[in-house]
């Protein structure tokens, strides 16, 4: 399973050629999004039409939500690294979900996640 961050999904949704080409090499049934990524994408919609189109597109992907104990660990991460490293609220949850699933997070936002110990990051294509 491939776990995608928001920036990668934005590239895919905007039709960025390297992102679309990369996605074409993997079966979509193995591509998953943290639920928080889906929410960030919805937050970026400018109107209801855009939101409807996004929701249709999101049906192609598995959306994953953390269990309560994963949220507890994300809270610990956030508490430890918010002040010292500027770890974001959603980034702590997305990163901890990837850790809990034992999956790398496909992202270009290495700066957002570098504070999370043990988190494996992967850049899926060249930007």
Explained architecture:
β4, α7 and β5 form a beta-alpha-beta unit. The longest helix is centred in the middle third of the chain and has 18 residues. The protein is 55% helix and 11% strand. α5 packs across α6.
Furnish the topology, listing elements before pairings.
Blueprint: E1 2-4, H1 6-13, H2 17-23, E2 31-34, H3 35-43, H4 48-58, E3 62-64, H5 68-85, H6 89-101, E4 105-106, H7 110-113, E5 121-122
Q: Which residues sit in consecutive blocks of at least 5 with pLDDT less than 50?
A: none
Q: How would you write the strand order of the largest sheet?
A: 3-2-1-4-5
Number of helices: 7
Order of helices and strands: EHHEHHEHHEHE
CATH A-level architecture = 3-Layer(aba) Sandwich
Rg of Cα set: 14 Å
What CATH calls the topology is Rossmann fold
Oligomer: single chain
Overall 3D form: globular
- Overall structural class, as computed from helix and strand content, comes to alpha/beta
Strand segment tally: 5
Distance between the termini: 22 Å
- Our count of domains comes out at 1
Which CATH C-level class is it?
Alpha Beta
| Largest sheet composition | 5 strands, parallel
Mean pLDDT reading: 97
The portion of residues forming beta strands comes to: 5-15%
Feature tags:
single chain, 127 residues, alpha/beta, Rossmann fold, five-stranded parallel sheet, 7 helices, 5 strands, 11% strand
Concise overview:
This protein has helices at residues 6-13, 17-23, 35-43, 48-58, 68-85, 89-101, 110-113; strands at 2-4, 31-34, 62-64, 105-106, 121-122. It is an alpha/beta fold.
